[in-house]
Amino acid sequence: MLLRAMLSHYRRHPLQLLALLAILTLATALWSGVWTLTSQARDSMAAGDRQLAGQQVLVRQDGKAVSVQDFADLRRNGLCVVPWLEVASDSGGARVIGLDPLAMSCAEAAPSGSGPVLDGKPFVDISEAARLAKDRPSVLRLYLATEIGHLPEGWQRQVDPAALDTGELADSFLLNLNALAVLVVLVSALLIRSVYTLGLDQRRHGLQLLERYGVQRRRLRRYLLLELSILAVLGAVPGYGLGLLLAEVLGSGFGSAMANLFDTALLATPHSVTGFLVTVAVMALVVFWCGLDLFKGGRGQTGMVRFQVPLALGALIAGAVTVLVAGSLVSAFLATALLLLGAGLVTPRLLQRLAAPHRDMAPLRLWRRRELGVLIRRLALPLVALQLAAGTVIAVHALVHTFEGTFNQWLDQRLSGDLFVEVPDGKAIVDVVPVLSQRELAANWHPVLRGQVILAGADTSSSLDLMATDSRSSLVQNWSLIEGVNSPWLAVGRGAVLVNEQLARRKGLTPGSRLILGFGEQTREVSVAGIYADYGRPAGEVMMDVEHLPQDFAPAFRSLTVTLPEGSANSRREELLASLQHAWQVDTLQVRDNETVHQLANRIFRQTFALTRAISYLTLGLAAVALLLTGWVVLGSRQWYYQLLVVWGLAGKSWFRVILTLAAELMVSIWAAAVPVGIALTWVLVQRINPLAFGWSLPMAIYPGFWLELMALLALAALMIAGAFWLRRPATGIAPALGNGEER
Amino acid sequence: MKAIEVTDLHKSYRTAAGRVPVFEGLTFTVEQGGSLALTGPSGSGKSTLLNILCGLDSADAGQLALLGEPAGLLGPDDWADLRRSRIGVVFQDSNLMPALTLEENVRLRADLAGQSFGPVRDWLERLGLQGLGQRYPDQVSGGQRQRAALAMVFAMAPDLILADEPTGSLDRHTASAVADELFRWQRHSGCTLVLATHDLSLAACCDQHLDLASGA
Ligand SMILES: Nc1ncnc2c1ncn2[C@@H]1O[C@H](COP(=O)(O)OP(=O)(O)OP(=O)(O)O)[C@@H](O)[C@H]1O
Ligand SMILES: [Mg+2]
């Protein structure tokens, strides 16, 4: 009976119940989705680490890529090596890893053997992987499964390059995602609480009535708590399922981003009980937070209000100081959290102060401003949630766009040239120089050689990517460097090297630093002439002039970058290729053109931030829906007073204008509060978090065009609210009077 | 001149159970400067009639002329103009904007009516609200709120006041004080007053009396 009386509220306001359930479901979906993805990623990386921990790889001393024949030879020599064949998948998504179960048996038998552990989907038999490798890029690695005294001639031991350094980067990346997940939880907790307390406020009268009829307060609370828990479960269970679905939808893009960034495949781990428990725990916390109000009695937030501004200022100052000195990712996130907290606390107060009218304003404007102040106060929670969500979206948008812009510019530099021609095995570049020197066939060209080089360090030496090109080619000389000595390309021509940003950050290199590079037997000391940007991968790379490569250096890959003459027709391109084929005496050539490579690279790199972008937009959507819903309820409770304006003779159009202006002012306030948060967050992301998380930084840029888009979106929301009110105005008669206890 | 002329007015509401008539064939007139008391049991249609008289509701059939203008010729904007400067409406409660002080409420209403708000403080004082102008509606008593509502209507200097149980939520003593102010001002300004009330002594103060239950 009591339950029926209590539930009658939702029977009268079915929309509110629906809204509460929808927000609970969506919020759960969002955070459990992100949680599932990050835990999958963590598991995958941990699995990768376990397989490769302390693993040593056999590499050829001449730096050549390992072939299947090499594997066969080594096994015939009785060496226990485990082959690991990685093949890129068609879609550019997750990779397939081929293992040889037979080869692994020797590893298991060995006392210290810790061969790769077989779990997860992407592992297949090596013969299957080899079949796939025929027409796809692939890498073969040979792991030493047992300790052996001496190595066969021409081979050397090396710590697995794939396991190198990326661990820390990957952790940072996950931390980044986790921070985003925490933000999602916070924003949605704010939303859930605001929708719930709003409903509670509406019911306060009815609850007091029940109490007056003699229902014990304790019993009432128990019922309310029970009701809240039931609602939480009703929202969380489908939400969790939706979250798994979300993780699956976002998973493939996320997987390729991980593969590109960290060389780690995303393993599809089956959903775990832990995931569900975490969801339940978070939900319980949020419910507890909502339920706190039940036990406080009355409104009782005055203590909070009194300290709100000093608390906010304290958080802002502490956050600003921390972010300036932050040396680790955790402290950077802590600083961000403090800044967001401060912004969230100070915003409603600040907006109210700004909305406060002058005494001598025209009366109707004065009314609008006062009403705006009331709305800001009563919608403080969803408003702050929307502010933070919009700020995050602004920052993520700026990050992604800056990244795209910088990356495209960088790609243009890297890919300046029309055609990339692979040099066929066993053929020499010198053979085609006469062809390439013909001005009507090629306007410009330079060779690109890639291989591996050993960076000798104090304790361990590690393997680096090496890129060699012609430093005098005008195609490379317009590369812009992050840092460099005077005329860096001249220095490279004289034997210096350039290093990528990742390597520079990791080893603390600056222009002028010296490195010891090992080419097979031979080592050489070189100086660093400059640092160049190298986005989207963790590996360190050095670049040098081809002239200075040792005679016996065996590149893993050789290609020619060719610029065709201005305005040359397709036939010219065919002619050039035919001449090259003729000079090399081969039937086919591997040729890629600039456009295709560009597109491929862009597609891959866009995925890097796809997840971040998706999450931040979903959060924004959630916050916007919540604001619309709570705004609807709060405005609805003010409806009588808006109708009073009609009674006082405000005609239809002017009334609509007043309500629309009011709604628009509310939205503009949110927008104005979100933009500074967005700018601050952008700076923190590109200048602080990115270098710590990915190893490279981006220039700071802002996109006011996007702010305007956001503003337009909010204006649309304002129009929707005003429009809904227009439709809801009674056609005839006037709503029954409310009590005059309505708070200001 | 007649302030209100109602001829054979019909009004019914459509409900789930079908049409429910509120009144059928209502006819009466009120002279300019006169006063009319509407009485009748709850649900007899007092509020409905007042709503029709200010254009917030419409009748199904019959004629209505208001302040010399036939209602049939009035569009929604004309009604709005009338309510803005010539017809003052007072409800039982919730007549004030909660976010404005009493003084600001009166100023807003006067401003909408195109009246200067110089004498705002005078109105408040004359209604016994001296010193309360800076308070918000939830900081004064119900009687004080109702007096502020009257001040707002007086400040707009209307030709017609429609009051729906203006003293309904007040105690006897306060109610008669508020009613006194209302009648004193009505006589002084020469405006027309239509009053819906359950209070027969209040109804007795009016020139005319219309009991909606009997239709007389
Ligand atoms: N919007 C509506 N829809 C349907 N019926 C309505 C509507 N508004 C009023 N009524 C009905 O019309 C009749 C007259 O209502 P009205 O509010 O005019 O009565 P009243 O005389 O003012 O009553 P009270 O003294 O209680 O204020 C009532 O029976 C009421 O139920
Ligand atoms: Mg009534």
UniProtKB/TrEMBL annotation, chain A:
Pfam families: FtsX. Its main location: membrane. It comes from the Bacteria. Keywords: Cell membrane, Membrane, Transmembrane, Transmembrane helix. The keyword Translocase does not apply. It is a multi-pass membrane protein. PANTHER family: BLL1001 PROTEIN, MEMBRANE COMPONENT OF PREDICTED ABC SUPERFAMILY METABOLITE UPTAKE TRANSPORTER. It comes from Marinobacter segnicrescens. It is found in: Cell membrane. Residues 179-289 form the ABC3 transporter permease C-terminal domain. InterPro entries: ABC3_permease_C (IPR003838), Membrane_comp_ABC_pdt (IPR038766). The chain crosses the membrane at residues 173-196, 223-247, 273-295, 307-326, 332-351, 614-634, 668-686, 706-727. This is Putative ABC transport system permease protein. GO terms for cellular component: plasma membrane.
UniProtKB/TrEMBL annotation, chain B:
PROSITE patterns: ABC_TRANSPORTER_1, ABC_TRANSPORTER_2. GO terms for molecular function: ATP binding; ATP hydrolysis activity; transmembrane transporter activity. It comes from Marinobacter segnicrescens. This is Putative ABC transport system ATP-binding protein. One of its GO terms (cellular component) is plasma membrane. The keyword Nucleotide-binding applies. Residues 4-216 form the ABC transporter domain. Gene3D superfamilies: P-loop containing nucleotide triphosphate hydrolases (3.40.50.300). InterPro entries: AAA+_ATPase, ABC_transporter-like_ATP-bd, ABC_transporter-like_CS, ABC_transpr_LolD-like, P-loop_NTPase. Keywords: ATP-binding, Nucleotide-binding. The lineage of its organism: Bacteria, Pseudomonadati, Pseudomonadota, Gammaproteobacteria, Pseudomonadales. Pfam families: ABC_tran (PF00005).
